Amino acid sequence: MLRFLAQRLAAIVPVLLVVAVVVFLILRLTPGDPAAVIAGNNATNDDIVRIREQLGLSRPLLSQFWIWFSNALQGDLGYSFYLNKPVSELIAQRIEPTLSLAAGTLAIAVLVAVPLGTLAAWRMGGWLDRTLSGFSVAGFSVPVFVIGYVLIYLFAMKLHWLPVQGYRRLFGASSQGVGAWAYQLVLPWFTLATIYVALIARVTRASVSEALTEDYIRTARAKGITESAVLLRHALANAAVPIATVIGIGVALLIGGVVVTETVFAIPGLGSLTVDAVLNRDFPVIQGVVLFFSVLYVLVNLAVDLSYLFLDPRIRY
Amino acid sequence: MALHTRLWRNSAFRFGVLVLAVLLALALTAPLLGTVDPSAMDSAHINTAAGERGEFALLDGNSVAHRFWMGTDNFGRDIYSRVLYGTRTSLLVASFTAVVAVAIGALLGMLAGYFRAVDAVLMRVMDGLMAIPAILLAIALVAALGATLWTVVVAIAIPEIPRVTRLVRSLVLTLREEPFVEAARALATPTPVILWRHVLPNAMAPLIVQGTFIAASAVLTEAILSFLGLGLPADVPTWGNIMAEGRVQFTQYPSNVLFPALFLVPTVLAINLLGDGLRDVLDPKFAKRAA
Predict the structure, then answer these.
(1) Model's pTM, two decimal places?
(2) Taking a C-beta distance cutoff of 8 angstroms, is the pair A270, A167 a contact?
(3) Residue B154 belongs to what domain range?
């Protein structure tokens, strides 16, 4: 177990290093003096000189990377001159709405997709299966923001069941409690869940249907146990590893979707921070957010790797 | 059975080809289909309702009788004309992105699969690139490079390259052990010629399939970038830009967001179905792998 953990941790080191290099180089792709780019439009010459000094911009590229990288390792992601705050503080401020959106979406998607995929595999070729595969193809073809606007149009503007836009905090002084928080997030959750449901349901169907052809399923049925136990304890349990894998891979999709969904629903999270940063050419923030999300994505997939130990007792490292 | 007959018997392929043919025809003949200049603003027609008739004031001072099939936006620009011209942008971005990503990915994949020395380093770099969520990477690249047609294509293509590279590498790893490659090596064929003449043709089918799916996701990503206001400049008519401008007044005039969507969704669907059809016919092994 510990050896496995050490192996996995060692495997993500080169990945994170490449991520850091790419994020570092993004700034260098912009034409012009990096110090002036970081300082933004309303900076003085003194600001630019100070930045050049701090980040070692007159030194070779490799030592510039080292300064930036060792700062990032200590949680210092740079300073946004546009918003006048450290990037790490900006991320901390905006993280609650984003995590609320992502975690709720994930929960809804798994709760909807896994049962649907399992049932579709159980009655393959039936009406549920055909509806679901049609939905999967459509789910990959409709952009998140279109789903968002259609849902706003139907449920907020026509039926007046749910609010159009906005966010209510779950924690802090301005919080109005869990109810207000969840009420405001229902539409964004379901908007973002659609693509994710399509992805997870498709893989669940494929892996459960494969498990259903195995001999142990025939044996289980021959023993006379109920069909639901066959499905849950035998088929689904054996299909768990690919399902967990696709949930982990899908987090990349989820992160992209978060950026779009936050814009549609005017949610003040990391996604809207990113969009604003690009519009204002606020590069330290862009770099910080990309680095943050990538590290998050890698860590989620590390957790998925570790979950195999529990999902499949045959896996022993 | 001939290849084109087999393809044509596949209903997904047929649907995809037909829809794309219609879209291509619309894109090419946009000036002939009762459109006006997509960037012309007529201050007398702000937020005109869909279906109304009227005189559209052109930039040169003349005006033409015009039917506002899809209404106008808050600048008085004709949505129907913008949507039709937007078809051009989407189809261009889709095809360029697919070609760029497949070409670079195939090259890198062949290098990684054929030369062990390159393999380890190159694939670690690809793993790292894949760890950055695709849309975020595209956003950051567009931010750094500035948004033109080419930079948008490059920004959407770069996150796709690692997937193509992995695919080609895995194909090359098996192909390089095939007798015909061994024979070519025994005849002292230069390695670039082996890769070009013997390896690449055998990797073509999965590459075409992969390229089709990349084209579909490129249409989506371009629309997302434009929608966020980060893609091509706002005056270029793209479906995402029309929706981005419709966004501010969505609650009063939802049609400005919904009409472009009526083109965007069938386009992506058609390319995806085309890809499904190609995969089933050209590359049954890949179909099994993906399922």
Answers:
(1) 0.87
(2) no
(3) 3-30+78-290
